[in-house]
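Ticket reopened. Same input as before:
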Amino acid sequence: MKNSRIILSGKTKNMLADNMVPIIFIAFTLLGFAVARGVPMSFFLTELSGRFYRNGFLVLSLIIPVVAGLGLNFGIVVGAMSAQLALIIVRYFFIEGFGGLLLCFAISTPIAAFFGYLTGKLYNKTRGQEMIASLIVGFFANGIYQFLLLFAVGVIIPVPATHPMIKTDGVGVRMTVDMGSLKYSLESVLEVSFVWAVLVVSILYLAYMLCKYLRAKQMPLAVSGGKYSFVGMAALVLCIAISLISIITNNSLMTVKRIPVLTIALIAMLAVFTKLIMKTKLGQDFRSIGQSQHIAQTNGIDVDKTRIIAVIISTVLAAWGQLIYLQNMGTLNTYGAHNQIGMFSVAALLVGGASVSKATVKHAFAGTLLFNSMFIMSPEIGQALFGQAILGEYFRTFMVYGVIGLALGLYVWNANRKAGLTLDPDTVETRTSI
Amino acid sequence: MSESVAERHTADASAKKIGLPTIIIGIFFLIVLIAALIIRLPMPVLISDLLRRFGMNGLLVLAMVPSIQSGTGPNFALPIGIVCGLLTIVSGIEFGLVGIWLILFACIAGTALAIAAGYLYGKLLNSIKGAEMMIATYTGFSIVALMSLVWLMVPFASKKMGWLMGTGLRETIQLDAVGADSIINKFLMFTIFGIKVPTGLLLVFFVFCILMWLFFKTKTGIAIMAGGINPRYAQASGLNTDKYRIIANIISTVLAALGIILFSQSYGYAQLYLAPLNMAFPAVAAILIGGATASRASVSNVIIGVFLFQGLLTTSMPVANQLFIGTDLSEIIRMVIQNGIILYALTQVKGVAKQ
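Engineering reply: fixed in the latest deploy. New output:
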């Protein structure tokens, strides 16, 4: 397929078209720096890194369903709600601190797995329409969630009206739940200076790349892709230089928020897990049902079960991601914290260059960074160009919806064009090459 | 989607039977009504409210019929037509129009605008066949967000719409300030047993229902239906299915534009910014409750569906408030029913089977 497209149009043109969404976002962020003069780099990096720790895990939780052919799982809000239920249970008994957070993880896992199982069942019944089903199931689950917390708590489950978490009339959980010392409980375990971390990581990675390069030089067959690693190495050297300069001159970059090592470690572990699981039997099954459910079925893979497993994993991971998100936020907005999670995470993944059928860890990381850069910059641009920050906020809402719509539209359009589709997808028999 | 003609007849026959969702919601509605009687809620007020909400939501639900019949699924991109209607209302106010002239202007200009928008939207749908519902949803969302920027930046000077300071339009624009509040509702309105009957509103809705019913008897209507039931067969018989899909979606978009004008004048406010964002979902749910599926719908589905869904929502709020003081159960009921019914319909879609 790739060959025919390259013949169709020039390779560079093709690359531009394929990466249109990321390019728009990079251009937009650069525009932000150009017009909004008042944005210091240290503020930008603090905001961006903070958002990365908050959202990275959630975005990664979307990858497995994409590989398994379920498309973008907007249903991760179900996982987020499970996490919030767990958190509310834990806070109801006034449990705090790092232990409390671990308890949240433990309680949220079975809840999320159960709802993930139900969601997976539903996706199997709405085959071919999983994405719209996942969007609607989020809205539906929100109704159930509100029923539980606004009505069942107090009317069906007796709770004391004097509890600080319960509304004064004794029915329902309050709009915001104080998280006590669960706040930053993951982050406060170990934090290191941002610039020092950049320095150390860059040096280590540079050393690793140099080793690899030197070894490759001994084997002349493996020189392909050498250009890439040179660009990477140059970037690393630049990072080292910048961090050295700021450490010596103690400039504003030193004020960038410190890095929460544990959060980063969790995100890294999930990234490694996502990569490793693809090498297992289960991961291979995900891949093959993602490519063709029919062929997978004839090869003896239990397609329905594998799809459900993919959704359960995604939902549980989303629950954990939401816990990481919430302990960073510090307060739980009981009825609002989960609503935008699915939409924003999907948009971030798509911005990174992922599509309905292809997503990698790289897409998730690049997307989280690019998407959040846009998010930080758009109120600044609105302020600078039109004197209204609210304009930027509406603009970024537009970007979220627009990116998802555009990415989905381009994907289907390309797929239909490739298939030479003239009528419905199930009526296509003669697959003509373009 | 590749049903034979014989299957089509059985499908028509089974559509005549009352579906499971209709029965469930119907029973639920009855229970709530009985509860309302038992706790002695003022029935005339309740029924007046029901009639008003039935009429004001009707056209938005009717807009689902052509798109479903043409095979593009329920029109999740209803906000496209809605913003067309809103745009012409605020333009009319800016031009200084009042009363019925404002509504007439909005209807005519809104129709023109919606034809153009619906044409483009139909073109879009034709290039993304197979994923219409999802992309329609996000097209609608994007348009609403884009129009939010327009509402914020549009250089209108009318004092009735702007903020006290700064540029841009208010989030809700009162229509009684321009004499257009309930102007259609009040036409020939009468009161019987204490029930206020908004004759004009109901009249408009039923006229459009009859027109829609007649439309599907015409050659174009039948061609749209044929394309929806079996596109390959329709294509083979020489019909340009793409063209009919576009026509159907133009009609749907126009109805959405007219629908929001009818809705706004009855509600008394034109709601801008993010208000239209989720307006498609209740409309989709209503027609599904009426017995439609994602690929078959009729005018009777619309009438039954709007009546049951809006009736349930209207009555459940005061009943729930009486029974469980201090809880907002009706909003929860709306969320669960509305999205539950859409999910149910999605499980019935004969989608792309295991590829």
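The radius of gyration of chain A is 23 Å. The first strand of chain A starts at residue 176 and ends at 178. Please confirm and we'll close it.
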